[in-house]
Design goal:
The chain is mostly helical. It is elongated.
């Protein structure tokens, strides 16, 4: 396995992210480094605060460089709110700046709407195992109390019938 210096890695990442950026495939053919290695360096550089200290970069949106499916809920809400008052050309520029498609924005709007509705409705929380066990025990206790009450009523009736018609051993 070939070891590359940090400076070389930074230059390759710069070439894949700079103003005249090239794809990892094209760069791999040019410099002889495997494309998956270059792609990994690029992903790792996305987590590093400052890849290149040569130029100060303009503040990028937090969501840039990631797939829309990887965006946080806060980012999705921010985009939905920001896009709410934009018209066609402004919306197109906004979507390009954010790196989104109209379908992504429509999906974000649906997700935000559903999350808002779900947050406003009072739904029952899923029961824990202990709560389910308590509910089952209470149900069984009620059943047994009903059976006990029925047995007690039958005993009382039997006693009254015996007193009214006589004892069990008598022929009447």
């Amino acid at each position: 396995m070939t070891e590359y210096s940090d400076g070389f890695r930074a230059r390759m990442v710069q070439r894949m992210t700079g103003p005249k950026r090239m794809s990892a495939n094209a760069l791999a053919q040019e410099v002889g480094v495997q494309q998956p290695t270059l792609s990994r360096w690029l992903r790792e550089a996305g987590t590093v605060e400052d890849v290149s200290k040569k130029k100060p970069k303009a503040k990028r949106p937090q969501s840039e460089g990631r797939r829309p499916s990887e965006w946080s809920a806060e980012e999705k809400v921010r985009v939905v709110i920001a896009s709410g008052a934009l018209v066609d050309t402004e919306l197109g520029e906004f979507l390009r700046r954010e790196g989104l498609h109209e379908e992504d924005l429509a999906r974000f709007r649906d997700e935000v709407r559903h999350a808002a509705v779900a947050g406003l409705t009072t739904s029952k929380k899923p029961r824990s195992d202990e709560q389910k066990r308590i509910k089952d025990l209470e149900r069984e206790l009620k059943r047994k109390e009903a059976a006990l009450a029925e047995t007690a009523a039958l005993l009382v009736l039997r006693k009254k019938a015996g007193a009214l018609w006589g004892g069990e051993g008598e022929d009447t």
